[in-house]
Design goal:
It is a single chain. The protein is mainly alpha-helical and 343 residues long.
Length: 343
């Protein structure tokens, strides 16, 4: 009961700190946007527009107000869940995020699953013979994939598999000759549901073909994190006292590794998974731009180029909220699975 109470107290403390973190992030983004060079009026009207038109648009968008007034208005709307409207087309920011977030989540989830499967397989493969050729190859793979620039790797993958071989599309999320499936915005799920209902699988095949290259590129780049983490933790776990005690009882090496060492070595990897979610945001930005993937990172890049203050602020706040939520859930899951953790 005391441990359950400690977990609840820890969860309450983390959730209480979440609004403070989001306020700090939102305030920092608000300030940096105003300090950065460039004027949203120039992005909307151009630099040759008459000064009267520029002043009228500035007043219409509320950019002529004092900075503290703009900040107070921004925080007031944010507290009520209002992220404002885009400066470029006056579309609600929540609607823009609702349309683009499923694409990024779909790409991120598939890439994360691929990274976990490949990375854990590579990290586990060299454990039979430490310092052997297979172990050395796994270490080089982990270092190499983590060090590759995402934009360079994406362009190489595009060149080989889309341009030279012609196996897969260069970019985009869906074939331009087909209408995207309606529903949740997750094309894989919506296409699968449509295929089960109609027996036609063209939508599912089209969405999968466009997802393969960006998800594989991002997943392989992140797999090195899982490979190195599992390799290091598994080696440390195999040298622990309880593993030696299991061996002394006559248990086979395979059983020792799978039943005693591997579960404990996977706990730190679970923590790495939460950190990797944050890495997905930075990596997905370059991947989505290279593959013209219409996700939230792609919209963020467009909004920054257009000096669209409300859209940039809204996307950053939502993404930060998702990252905070995922890290809290991962920390709580690790605490539940590992009774050694104290709060």
């Amino acid at each position: 009961m005391s441990r359950r109470r400690s977990l609840l107290r820890y969860l309450a403390a983390r959730l209480a700190l979440a609004p403070l973190m989001l306020w700090l992030i939102a305030s920092l983004v608000f300030l940096l946007l105003r300090l950065a060079p460039g004027d949203p009026i120039d992005a909307l009207l151009g630099t040759r527009a008459p000064e009267s038109a520029r002043a009228a648009l500035r007043a219409q968008l509320g950019l002529d107000q004092p900075l503290l007034h703009q900040y107070g208005s921004f925080l007031g709307k944010l507290l009520h869940g209002d992220l404002g409207a885009s400066l470029t087309n006056q579309e609600p920011v929540t609607e823009v995020i609702r349309q683009s977030l499923p694409a990024s989540l779909e790409l991120g989830v598939v890439a994360l699953l691929l990274a976990a499967v490949v990375g854990l397989a590579v990290g586990f493969s060299g454990i039979a013979r430490p310092e052997g050729k297979l172990d050395l190859a796994g270490r080089l793979y982990g270092i190499g994939t983590y060090a590759l620039p995402p934009f360079w790797a994406a362009m190489v993958v595009q060149l080989v598999f889309a341009v030279w071989l012609g196996w897969l599309p260069v970019g985009g999320r869906f074939p331009p000759t087909l209408l995207p499936p309606e529903g949740s915005g997750f094309y894989l799920f919506d296409s699968l549901r449509s295929g089960l209902a109609t027996g036609e699988w063209q939508l599912l095949l089209g969405s999968m073909r466009h997802l393969v290259l960006p998800a594989a590129t991002l997943g392989l780049l992140l797999s090195g994190i899982f490979a190195n983490s599992l390799r290091l933790n598994l080696r440390r776990t195999l040298g622990s006292d309880y593993v030696e005690a299991a061996r002394s009882r006559g248990l086979g090496e395979a059983r020792v590794v799978l039943r005693h060492a591997l579960p404990n070595a996977l706990l730190p990897v679970l923590t790495i998974t939460g950190i990797t979610v944050a890495s997905l945001i930075g990596g997905a930005l370059l991947i989505e731009i290279t593959y013209s993937w219409p996700g939230i990172a792609f919209r963020l890049q467009e909004a920054i180029g257009q000096r669209d203050y409300p859209l940039v602020q809204g996307i950053v706040v939502v993404v930060a909220g998702l990252v905070v939520l995922v890290t809290v859930l991962v920390d709580l899951l690790v605490a539940v699975l590992d009774p050694r953790i104290k709060f």
